[in-house]
Write a structure and sequence with these properties.
Helix content: 10-25%
Number of strands: 6
Radius of gyration: 23 Å
Distance between the termini: 64 Å
Largest sheet: 4 strands, mixed
Length: 128
């Protein structure tokens, strides 16, 4: 067993407070939020049941952690209502609308530019 594997293996939860497993070694019956969502489920208010951990040189803490939830306690995803669909459409329309020319760009405006590409680089649009 490697040193890294040993630091990430704590099935009793004595070290980190919750059962901890190495990356890709979580037992059956646990899933991350994304995995639950792919199955059409959500955590549904349950507390974190376990976590998976791996070393990371980029993170200041030195470890990358993903929280796990119990699949048997997960609830189905709430269905999309007409009001939620309208609110989502309005939010996406606002992200596509250029604040300078007030037109729908057809794509989400980059936050780095703050406006559509046509308004951000007008000199490059006239080159034939």
């Amino acid at each position: 067993m490697s040193l890294t594997f040993g630091k990430c293996f704590d099935p009793s939860g004595a070290t980190y407070g919750v059962p901890t497993f190495p990356w890709k070694f979580a037992p059956d019956g646990y899933a991350t939020r994304r995995q639950l969502r792919a199955r059409g489920l959500r955590p549904g208010g349950q507390p974190v049941a376990a976590q998976v951990m791996r070393r990371s040189r980029r993170r200041r803490a030195g470890a990358l952690v993903a929280y796990l939830y119990r699949v048997d306690q997960a609830k189905p995803v709430r269905p999309m209502t007409p009001g939620r669909a309208a609110a989502l459409a309005k939010a996406m329309r606002a992200r596509r609308t250029c604040p300078k020319c007030r037109t729908d760009a057809g794509y989400c405006i980059p936050t780095s530019l703050g406006m559509c590409v046509t308004c951000a680089y007008p000199q490059e649009q006239h080159v034939a």
